[in-house]
Amino acid sequence: IAQSSDLKTVEREVSEWAEERFTEIRELKERESFRREFIGNVSHELKTPIFNIQGYILTLLDGAIDDPKINMKYLNRANKSVERMINLVQDMDVLNKLESGVMDVRKQSFDILKVCKEVFEMVEEKAAEKNIKLKYKKEYDKPIKVEGDPNRIEQVLSNLVMNAVKYSKTNGYVEIGIFDMADKYLIEVSDDGLGIPENDVPRIFERFYRVDKSRSRDIAGSGLGLAIVKHIIDAHKQTINVRSTEGVGSTFSFTLKKAK
Ligand code: ADP
């Protein structure tokens, strides 16, 4: 009896040991495929602006530099491509810091309405280009005090509002609503823009995920904005949701604790 129970113990230990190794191997494989995918995404996103810049330079070298009208056009285009790369690198930097926990969340009490107003001011020009109306669900005339890191929440709102403007139709609107929900506020950013196909909705918070490459090709973006948003909301232990209908519009909503 003693022998058979020893054998059972050994058997159990061996199978536990094997299971741990399997888990280790699986994790290593996952990390490796994540690393490969990440490098693939970054090089893909950098390729377009770099080749564009090279094209503009070659055109200038080819003689266009002597024509003051054409050279300005190509230099401006090259500058746009550089801006695109800067945005990508900045977004990667923010995401990296958030994911490695280097960027701390400094919670304090602040007025979310003031942040909304600042974000609307920031995108005013871009919205005007497409005649998009920036509005509020109703008139909010008193400060709305919430708890969180005001700089990070400003980044959340500016990413959401910027997306709403970017993926909106001409003459559309972007609307912010703030709803009182017992110990929290629900903050909604809605638009009547392109919307998101049902199948893509679950994936849009993933890094580098962009809906339909052909649709996104003309609209600059890194595909990192919503990954950053999700991280910040998670760090606040709050939730974010999206409702969207293709061709009709989207609503992103997140919660924040009321300030005590
Ligand atoms: P991007 O830099 O591509 O805008 P995001 O992470 O901010 O990256 O968004 C991921 C994708 O989700 C976008 O490429 C776009 O396809 C889709 N998306 C985000 N916000 C909206 C919106 N308000 N309306 C329609 N599509 C959106």
TrEMBL record:
The keyword Kinase applies. GO terms for biological process: cellular response to phosphate starvation. The keyword Kinase applies. Residues 41-260 form the Histidine kinase domain. It catalyses: ATP + protein L-histidine = ADP + protein N-phospho-L-histidine. GO terms for molecular function: phosphoprotein phosphatase activity; phosphorelay sensor kinase activity. This is histidine kinase. It comes from Phaeocystidibacter marisrubri. The lineage of its organism: Bacteria, Pseudomonadati, Bacteroidota, Flavobacteriia, Flavobacteriales. The chain holds residues 89 to 348 of 348 of the full protein.
